[in-house]
Task: inverse folding
């Protein structure tokens, strides 16, 4: 099938399958899946600028489907999502500006690659340690008293990083707000905005929706239960990715026809991913999340070593 | 329990098959009709194209979500 906007020939079935896989990941983990979609489009010969912009458009559609499903399961904190969207957009602009500055300095590829490797690997190692420790502690405390199905059904979450999260929640910088949907009595607005700003910064700097940074930050820094972090992150991505799609479309980087075809597969995948979250407890979802940033790091290392631009 | 899982899988497979037929029709009808118009819009009116792109992907998300939900409900009821 010929896509005239990006001047590329791609088999629509390939796009549907890629969308389906990313849909499952998005519904289950609350990530955009740009670390797969970008390289997958590049493999078909789509220019990098179109791959980035088109991926963002596809993320908007997929996140709408997944967030709607999560909302019916009570996994979306609208108030938190709205606040985070503001910080994300601001941070994304900052990240994009830094990219422009590095472009002028002539070392953008090296710096972005190394930052990506450090950040992706760091997240994976930390989450592996945390989820593994939490699961071990939980098993020791409730030996034989709570079944896996019951633990998954309950949205109350446990984390080995919990004491640090509690200390962060106790930071009193006015204005303090409450997030009843997420079970947080009081937290500084600035803490939420800072988390969103950092997530947005990496979104603008490393590309994609940066769900691999925002979802763990929501759990470990803000203390949001994992199921709610996944749903709220998806809701927040709708707003920030729409903004990204708009700015990229104006610059001529979006082939909406490719995004529409990919999205037909993502609709089914996202629904499967959302339903699957009901069968896993928070720490298990976090443990399953560990390989995702590592895949991103592996792709960046591959491009650095071989010199190929995926 | 096993029978329930088998039934869910059968409903899902049927849903997927019907959905695939609908989506194939959608490719050939809608995308062929929209392709030329969107291409012209992208080259001549970028801001309008940006707005239309977001509306299209959001509209498709809501529409396809509704289609899959209705399909799933209908098939569930039929096989109950």
Result:
């Amino acid at each position: 099938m010929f896509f005239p906007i990006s001047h590329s020939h791609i088999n629509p079935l390939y796009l549907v399958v890629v969308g389906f896989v990313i849909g499952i990941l998005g519904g289950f983990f609350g990530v955009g899946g740009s670390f797969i979609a970008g390289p997958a489009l590049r493999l078909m010969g789509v220019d990098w600028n179109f791959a980035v912009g088109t991926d963002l458009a596809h993320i908007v559609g997929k996140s709408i489907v997944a967030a709607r499903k999560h909302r019916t399961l009570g996994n979306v904190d609208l108030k938190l999502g709205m606040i985070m969207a503001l910080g994300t957009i601001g941070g994304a602009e900052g990240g994009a500006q830094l990219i422009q500055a590095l472009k002028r300095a002539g070392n953008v590829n090296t710096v972005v690659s190394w930052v990506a490797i450090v950040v992706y690997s760091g997240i994976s190692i930390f989450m592996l340690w945390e989820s593994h420790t939490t699961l071990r502690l939980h098993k020791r405390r409730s030996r034989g008293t709570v079944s896996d199905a019951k633990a998954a059904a309950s949205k109350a979450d446990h984390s080995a990083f919990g004491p640090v999260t509690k200390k962060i929640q106790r930071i009193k910088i006015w204005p303090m707000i409450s997030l009843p949907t997420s079970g947080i009595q009081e937290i500084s607005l600035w803490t939420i905005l800072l988390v969103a700003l950092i997530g947005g910064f990496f979104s603008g700097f490393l590309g994609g929706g940066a769900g691999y940074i925002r979802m763990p930050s929501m759990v470990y820094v803000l203390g949001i239960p994992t199921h709610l972090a996944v749903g709220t992150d998806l809701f927040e991505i709708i707003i920030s990715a729409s903004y990204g799609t708009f700015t990229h479309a104006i610059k001529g980087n979006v082939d909406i026809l490719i995004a529409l075809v990919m999205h037909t597969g993502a609709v089914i995948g996202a629904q499967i991913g959302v339903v699957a979250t009901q069968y896993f407890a928070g720490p298990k979802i976090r443990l399953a999340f560990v390989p995702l940033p590592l895949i991103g790091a592996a792709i960046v290392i591959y491009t650095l070593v071989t010199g190929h631009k995926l | 329990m096993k029978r329930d899982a088998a039934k869910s899988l059968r409903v899902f497979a049927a849903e997927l098959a019907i959905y695939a037929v609908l989506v194939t029709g959608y490719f050939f009808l809608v995308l062929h009709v929209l392709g030329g118009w969107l291409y012209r819009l992208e080259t001549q009116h970028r801001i309008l194209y940006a707005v239309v792109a977001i509306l299209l992907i959001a509209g498709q998300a809501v529409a396809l979500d509704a289609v899959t939900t209705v399909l799933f409900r209908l098939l569930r009821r039929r096989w109950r």
Residues 12 and 72 of chain B are 7 Å apart (CA to CA). Chain B has a mean pLDDT of 83. DSSP finds two helices and no strands in chain B. The first helix of chain B runs from residue 2 to 44.
